[in-house]
Structures are given as C-alpha cells and as structure tokens.
Amino acid sequence: MTKRLLSMGLGLGLLAAGAAALAQEPAAAAAVADAAAAAAPAAAAAAEAPAPALSAGDTAWMLTSTMLVILMVIPGLALFYGGLVRTKNMLSVLCQVFVIFSLITLLWAVYGYSLTFAGEGNFFGGFGKIFLKGIAPDTLAGALPTIPEYVFVAFQSTFAAITVALIVGAFAERIKFSAVILFSVLWFTFSYIPMAHMVWGGGLLGKDGALDFAGGTVVHINAGIAGLVGSYMLGKRIGFGREALPPHSLTLTMVGASLLWVGWFGFNAGSAGAANGIAGLAFINTIVATGAATISWLAAEALHKGKASMLGAASGAVGGLVVITPAAGLVGPMGAIVMGLIAGPVCLWGVSGLKKLLKVDDVCDVFGVHGVGGILGAILTGVFCASSLGGIEPANFNMGHQVWVQVKSVLLTIVWSGVVAGISYKICDLVVGLRVSEESERQGLDITTHGEVAYYR
C-alpha cells in the first residue's frame, strides 16, 4: 500500500511539473503541436505514394520499341540509302550503316550512356555508370521507373546509332571507310552525347524548357547539319552537275522507306516510355503526319514537275516522320496533320531549291529532309503543343516564349553539330584521309573498298 501511494505521488508530481513547464512555455507547446499537425499530411502522402515498381506491360512495349528502332536502321535506313546510290556503291552504303550500328551501340554501353544520363552537367553527364557500372537486372531506370534500366539503355542505344548512321547518306559514294569509322567515334562522342544530355539528360536545353519528344534536335537536326558539313568538306562526286547520277533501285528505296515508317512507331511511340495514352497519341500522330506529308509532297511535286513520283512519295513520308518526331506525344492528331501538310512542300524545297542554292552534293538529301524537316518540326512543336490547338502544353505555357525557346534550341544544335562535325572531318582528313582516289571512285566503293559487288550478272 505504501509503495502504491509513493508511485501515485511520483506520477502526480511529474504531471504537475509537466503542466507547469507547459504553462511557462506555451509558445513551445504550440510550436510542437503545429509541427505535428503539418507533418501529418506529408507523412500520409508519403505513405500513400506507390514505390517505383516494374511494369510487365511497359517493359514489353519498350522491348518491342527497341526492336522496331533497330528495324529502322538495319535494314530500313540501309536499304533506303542503298537504293538511292549507284549500283557500284550499293554494298558500301549497306556496310557503313551496318558497321556504324554495331560500333555505336558498343560505345553507348561503354561510356555513352553514362555521359548522357548519369550526372547533371549542362553539356555532359558523368562517369558514374561507365561500363554500365551499378546496373543489374532488377535495377529500374531512373527516368522510366517502371522498366529495367537495361531496357532503357538498349532503347537509347538505338537512337544514338541511327543518328550517326543517318549522316552517311550525305557523303556516300566518295568517302574512305576508315574515315567513316573515325568520324563516327568522334562525332558521336562530342556531338550526339552532349546534345542528348542537353535535351534529355537534364542538361542546358532541358533546363531551358525546350521540347523534343523523340529527337527533332537530338537526332535529325544534329545529323542533318553534320551531313551538310560533310558534303562540303568532301566535295562533289565526279560528274556531279555534268552527268546523270540516278538512284539504281527505287524499289529498294521504297522498301527501306516502308521499314522506316514501321520502325518509327518504336521511335516515336516508344519515347512515351510506357504503354500508356501518350504512346497511343504518338502512334496515331506518326500515322497521320506521315500520310499528310506524303500527299502534300506529291501534290507540290505534281504542280511543279507535272508528275508525282515514287521517290517523292517515299521522301515525303520520311519528311513527315521527321517533322512529327519532336512533337509526337505533345500535339493532337489534327495538329499532326497540319504539321505533315506543311512538311511535304517545305522538305521538297529543301531537296530542290535550297539544295541548288547551297550548291552541295548531298547524295541522299540528309540535310534537305532531316535537317530542314527537323528544324521545321522543332519550331512547330512550340505552336501546336498549345491546348487550344489540341496539344498538351507544359505548365505556364506561352506560345511566343515557347517558340523562342525552340528556336534557341535549333540554333544551338546547328552551331554545336556544325563545329564538332567540321573539326571531326578535319581530324579524319589529317589522320586517314577523307576521300578515296579518283580511280577508286570511278570503279565504285564496293569493289575497291570491300572487294565485292552487290549484283552478279
């Protein structure tokens, strides 16, 4: 009984002391109560927020998209370009595209992915994931937390590879194979990687608010400018402007263009990063913009030349694919159609009127289609992403400001790619030489460089 009374007395004493302390410090008590009240909703929200988890559907779609982009490169791009050159250079173009794809995907795994997506510099990432360090089968991608990081690495490697491969169409039929390889390493390292980081990896252009859903600046303008510079630095083909240098197989070019269109669904819709509504939007936009550009190119061609050509249809389709790339998941289908209708005649001018003004021998019209179409698409993205035009505009959207941001991203890409390309070509010229001999060019690169021919008679 005595112990019980002592315990009760001690408890009452402590309560009294606590009450006295609270009475003496009411502000402190209120602060504690307020802090607890403020923390409660945050704790509840944290508890309710789902942790990143693997999605089988998203993973399956991204694996499929990766394979579709590979289809774009080999065989799509290879056949598209191969059909546009002469018979004696067919295999050289196929080989260049095939080997570039193999080379760049290796470099991407070794250091490209890390310098693009690891780190937060304005122009380059870091070496935190060099040799894919720290990535395991159960590691989820930081940018796309519902898919394995290995899948994200693979998907992005195809973008890097096709961007470099696009350039070969500009200097086809006259460049040394060793120069192609050395140039690819240099330009990939110092132009593709920083441009991809600046736009998609948290770098300068991304911070500025530039919109590029699937690669208008990173892929098409970047490659188009490098191709234009290469055309100038290698000079014109023997006989250019004095004799006909027609494509040897528009049949193969049409097949290549068709494979490009099919593969582009992985390129654009895959850039949604998940099997969701944005992927569906990018998918339908890739259909309608491309169809619109094909029709408008042929209409303009028929008005200008009196005939609509198969080459025009294929080129118009590629122009439409290029122009919708930066906007695929950001504009509505009607906006995509308008963009495609504009792209057809603009890209037609790019491969005809502008090409004559520039006096350049861009064999497969890399700049006329990819450069011009990429510039057009990047700028129009700032217009048609407006919700009033059916698009998905960013927060605090102002059309005039967004168009200016897009223009700045275009200008930076042109300067960056042009400077890097010029320096890279010059290094190649000094180290291995850029152009084959006149005799080799006349015989064709298939036999003189690779010791084989595309067709036996």
Automatic annotation (TrEMBL):
Coiled coil: none annotated. The gene is amt. It comes from the Bacteria. This is Ammonium transporter. The chain crosses the membrane at residues 59-81, 93-113, 150-172, 179-201, 213-235, 247-267, 273-298, 310-328, 334-354, 366-389, 409-428. It comes from Delftia lacustris. Residues 1-23 form the signal peptide. The lineage of its organism: Bacteria, Pseudomonadati, Pseudomonadota, Betaproteobacteria, Burkholderiales. Residues 60-455 form the Ammonium transporter AmtB-like domain. PANTHER family: AMMONIUM TRANSPORTER MEP2. Keywords: Ammonia transport, Membrane, Signal, Transmembrane, Transmembrane helix, Transport. NCBIfam families: amt. Belongs to the ammonia transporter channel (TC 1.A.11.2) family.
